Each structure stands twice: as C-alpha cells, then as structure tokens.
Amino acid sequence: MPNTLIDRNGIAAVERIIRPHIRRTPVLAVHSGDFGLICGDITFKFELLQHGGSFKARGAFAQLLTREVPRAGVVAASGGNHGVAVAFAAMKLGVPAKIFVPSVASQEKKDRIRASGAALVIAGDRYADALAASEEWATQSGAMVVHAYDQVETLLGQGTVGLEFEEQAPELDTLLVAVGGGGLIGGVAAWYGGRTKIVGVEPEAAPTLANAIRAGRPVDSEAGGIAADSLAPKRVGELMFPIAQKYVERVVLVSDEAIHEAQMELWKTLRIAAEPGGAAAFAALLSGRYEPRLGERVGVLVCGGNTTAVDFTRARHA
Asked: Which of 134, 149, 188, 317 is the most exposed place for a label (fewest CB within 10 A)?
C-alpha cells in the first residue's frame, strides 16, 4: 500500500484501490423545517445504501485488497454490520470467511452474513465476547484477522466516506458522525483534518468515546441500549483515539428514545429505513443535543440500514 499512515494521502490511495468494489453513495440536502427544525438545510449522506447495508464495506475491501490473505481465509468479530461487510467482500473476492457475532446481533444481520456464504458463529452476549472467540479461532486456524475498527486498513477504508462527502458537499461547516468503536469517525476526521467540525454522537448507554476523552485514553464502558449491535463495543480503538483527540470537536450523547424518534422521522419524511446506529447522528439534531448556530451548514451520516423494522409482508397478502 503506498501509504500506511491514517491521513489524507493514505485514504486517497486506498480509495483508488477499493473504488471498483464500492458504491459512491448519494447525498441529499433537506430543509430542516421538514423535520420541524429551524437550522437551514441538513445534508444527509446515505451510506446505508452501500454494499452490505453500511459503510463497513469500505474497510472490509480495504483489508482484503491491501493485505495478503492466507489459504485459511479471514475471520472477523462483529456486532453485525462489519460481519456482513467482511462476508460480502470475501464472497466477491473468493475468500473463505468465518464471522463471530454476539447474541444481540439482529436477525437481519445474521441472515445477510449467512447469505454471503460465510460461516457464522454466535459467541457470547456482547461484541467483546465475539472478539475473544474470533481471536482464538484465528490462532487455531491461521486465518487473517479483519478487525472492525482498530486496524490501519479499516480506518483508511472508512475514511473514504469523508473523501466522498467532501467532494459531494464541500461547503459543510459541521459533520455529525455516530461512534461505536471509532473506525468511521476516526477515518472521517483524519480525512477532514480539522477543516470541518466533526461531532461524535453516541448512545447514552454506550459512551465509549465520551468516556475515553474524559479519561485521556480508551477505557472500558457500558455496552447496551437500542443500538448495541452496532454502537456498543467495550472501548474505542487505540488507533482512532489520538485522531479523535485532535480533530473531534466534541461528543454528544443521545437517548434510546431519541434514536428511535430519529428512525421514525427518517422513515416518515424521507422513506429511509435506518437501523438504530444509522439514525444516531440525526438523533443529535432532532433531540437538540447538538444545536447548530444560525446559518451553520450541517452534514449527517446515515451510516447503516440493516434492520427488519419495515414490514412488507402485507404486500404478499394483498
């Protein structure tokens, strides 16, 4: 890989490598009044339309295309979306994959992993349990570990979201980004490099980055709430943390109720079916946890849509 630093050059180099394998997801400027807000236009980037239903495909392809994959294939631990992405990338590139997920992973995500042909293992109740089981399997099998957020290649891949968003909406003052392990916000913040204000959004039930910033280092945190299958690791990544310290302006916390309301508003107004983690960034605006100044141009990443919340079964019986 031309550059293994987590910076603009490294992200741009990886973007060129993964471009044939990922979608350039759309953006849409929506007047805030459509949601009952008074902050001007909100520019959404719909990364839930990416392959596998989330931004995670970028990091997965970055890993598999820039590292030497052994005959044993790849192994990943995931709350769900990373597993879906790794399974999808492995299928497309003809690589064996084994995915470990916790019991809180949604049925939609488990079904998508199986549909891509990967071996699926349910291990424990939280992401940390699945991670430990995946590491044990990697030691036994020799499979290549594809970490969900704490590897250079993953961060570079996720950083391509920022590259794309800046090309599509260069005028943004602020970007709201949901935080789980920190791969997305770390990569995006590394791309913008302080030129645009980056605000992290976490569930109150999983304040991993907020606690890390308060402590001055990644620390163990609670891992629960409505978005536990995507935004509730035990702690944020070591690699992203110094990037966040330098370039993330603040972290705001949102309640489960606010996340659910954001899901409902995205569906009611835009017909966008976001999973809880995918709606978390918008929840910060809708709930007032982030209040933009007059005229501030705000971008929101809708980062995942692997949900079964929309029921189409009635259509079959009409």
From this structure: 317
Q: Which tens digit of pLDDT belongs to each residue from 9-36? A: 999 999 999 999 999 999 999 998 899 8
State both tokens at 120.
């699926």
**Contact predicate 231/280, CB 8 Å:** yes
Q: What is the pLDDT of residue 263?
A: 95
Per-residue model confidence as pLDDT tens digits over 67-111: 999 999 999 988 788 899 999 999 999 999 999 998 888 888 888
Report pLDDT for 2.
40
Instruction: Write down all domains in the chain, each with its CATH number in brackets.
Output: 8-54+151-302 (3.40.50.1100), 56-145 (3.40.50.1100)
What's the CA gap between 56 and 47, in Å, rounded? 9
Per-residue CA distances from 283 to 177, 262, 302 (Å): 11, 5, 10
Q: How far is CA 137 from the centre of its chain?
A: 25
How many CB atoms are located within 10 Å of the residue 220 CB?
12
Question: Is-contact 298 292, C-beta < 8 A?
Answer: yes
Q: How far apart are CA 201 and CA 298, in angstroms?
A: 14
Contact between residue 227 and residue 206 where contact means Cβ atoms under 8 Å apart: yes
Dist CA 271 CA 123 (whole Å): 34
User: Do 239 and 186 meet the contact criterion of CB atoms below 8 Å apart?
Assistant: yes
DSSP secondary structure, 77-137, as one string: E-SSHHHHHHHHHHHHHT--EEEEE-TTS-HHHHHHHHHTT-EEEE-SSSHHHHHHHHHHH
- The CA distance from 47 to 50, in Å, is 5
Give Rg (Cα) of the chain: 18
SS3 261: helix
Token readout for 77 is: 């631990």
Q: What percent of the chain has pLDDT over 70?
A: 94
Q: What is the pLDDT of residue 179?
A: 95
The answer to whether 172 and 231 are in contact (CB under 8 A) is no
